[in-house]
Design a protein that fits this description.
Elements lengths: L12 H14 L1 E4 L5 H12 L4 E4 L5 H17 L2 E7 L2 E6 L7 H10 L1
Parallel strand pairs: 1-2
Antiparallel strand pairs: 2-4, 3-4
Length: 113
Amino acid sequence: MGLFSIGKKKKNEDQLNVDNELMSDKIIFENLLTDEDQYITGLAEKMINGHPLILNFEPLDIDQANKVIAFLSGVIYAIHGEIANVQEKVFMFAASDVYDDGSMEEFLKDVVE
């Protein structure tokens, strides 16, 4: 079962909106403004503790973005996670169990639209 399990029952639209609000409480949304080690390791610690990260790399220059992606890719590897492309310069980093039941894909569709 994934972190955001919707379950087997069909839910009405109001209940799905409540579920999405609960999901957004667990997900860390960040507009990356820096590649400082302390900041990035803090984000990695949150991911290790079970919080998916949705990160916007647009404000960073290419070297800063590559540094952050390389570091977080190592963390993803260590926790057996996955990286999902949400938009052109927006990526989600999370443990693989977050994607198990398909609710994360539904949540991302709602967020992107």
